[in-house]
Design brief:
The complex is a heterodimer of chains A (279) and B (314). With 279 residues, chain A is mostly helical. Chain A has 13 helices and no strands. The two termini of chain A are 25 Å apart. Chain B has two domains: 218 residues, Rossmann fold, CATH 3.40.50.300; 67 residues, Alpha-Beta Plaits, CATH 3.30.70. Helices cover 36% and strands 27% of the residues of chain B. In chain B, helix 6 links the parallel strand 7 and strand 8. The C terminus of chain B is likely disordered. The chains are: A mainly alpha (279), B alpha/beta (314).
Chain lengths: 279, 314
Amino acid sequence: MTTIAQELGAPLPRLARTPFGPLATLARRRFHLTVRTPRELFVPLLTPLLFALVIAPALRDALHTTSAYEAYVATGTIGLLIPLNTMFAGLSVLVDRETGAQRELLAAPVRRPLLVLGNMIVAFGVTALQIAVLIGAARARGIHFAVDGAGIAWFLAAGALFTIGMYGAAEALAARVPRAEEYISRVPAIAIVPWFLAGSLFPITALPEALTWVARFLPLTHALALVRYGLLDDPSGLHNIWRMDSTGAMAALSLAVVAAFAALLTAAGIRLFSRTAVS
Amino acid sequence: MDTAIEVDRLSKTYPGGVRAVREISFDVPRGEVFGLLGPNGAGKSTTVGMLTTTVAPTSGTAVLAGYDVVRSPLAARAVSSVVFQEPVVDRVLTGRRNLDIHARLWQVPAAEAAARIEALAPTLGLADLLGRPVAALSGGERRRLEIARALVSQPRVLFLDEPTVGLDPRVRAELLGVIAGLRDRMETTILLTTHYLDEAERLCDRLAIMHEGAIVALDTPAALRAGLGERIVELRLREEPGAALARLRDRGLAGPDAFAVGTSLTIPLHLGDDPSAIAQTEWPGLAPASMTTREPTLDDVYLHLTGGQLRDAA
């Protein structure tokens, strides 16, 4: 039998010195798969666009709210777009496992966490594109945003970290359930229910007291409060969560919550994928 | 290094206590085509899973081209490729894109990969197919594409896990020709799993027959056949053959290597047995529907060792 010395003496097979080459290949593969399945690009965008461009103006007219409410709902729909899109992206992991090339990727000389990260890069890019389309459409519809450099930074940081966290949740769910049907049946609870509680259409303080407390623990509540702080210069969402005087401190705390959510769910997604990849 | 695959007391017990593989050991020299033959559930795919690092061994060691699959899984994967039992391809992508992704993941430089793909395509009958989405290819074409993909990285060890299962006879024959051609042209070590005996006999230099997770025989096809003697007598009975076999053994007309499958009794003849005398034997209490004498086949070896489960599984 081969000894360790023999193994060390064997000529090294070609292996990547850095993970970037394989990661780029995996992301490129996912991109090519995604662009050939347009539903992954457009379906998650439909509902948020409907909310931002049709339902929000209708609510403003029916409830006689100010035009600021349109902007409130338009930013709130970002909180629907990100979970829907990342959950759709997670579905493609199941497709890969059931009828795609996942086993080939598992037999490839790349570290298995890169398989998750390669998918995440494309989900992240597609989500960013969709948010840009949503904001562009909202502006074209006459919805006003109040942005400056710092605001954009808060918005981008919150949106990016929340997207990463939600994609981690999608990977974790895809690793846990055996079939696409079971995955889809769980999506509403993960992607839609929190959206109603997280201050998307109305402030969380309008909820019953107990649900307000639940909302304060939802990462989406923190992400939306940061998005509105960044895009509308509206810190009321942060105040409703933290009840502090310093807006900067509240924003930093909420960002820390979203960052922790991203780190935790990404780690969980990678861990569950890697564990289920080997029996 | 002359040994491409070294397996030593490799075992796998799944959660729940299912012992899928039980302390199997074998070595495969470089360039050999080695077959793992066995019915469904014999442990072949679990063995390939352990060698390709998608199944964690419970105990024992496995080494591919010098790399331990547990201690150096990335290196072990870098020197090997797999053609899976089920189609494992990106269907919406073109054949060429599938090959290209494999080449990149196995760190083949782009120009070299393009040259290899151009060389492999005509060999495997894919020259006009690579630009089409895989979903538009037939089952046989997909299989050839998967073999081409596995070869793009020029693996030192190639795993073919039941590569012809589910294919119609014409495509299967065509694919066997392709694999036989590769075997003659390449120095790659091939580990082939199958439950088709003709496939094993045609392609493999040596065979390990697996049964209930263990290797029950390992040798060249010719040596395995020779183990059953020079000729065999096959009796087709109208009655339950188990009791008949016991009676024949009691009378010394059948040895311990005789076996019953369905309504047939197979009795190997060894040196010293006289086939013509056997043919004229009055079989005590039996009224065979037919009796034939012939040379043993791998089928007989297999059925003798595994109790006839292959026919049941196939």
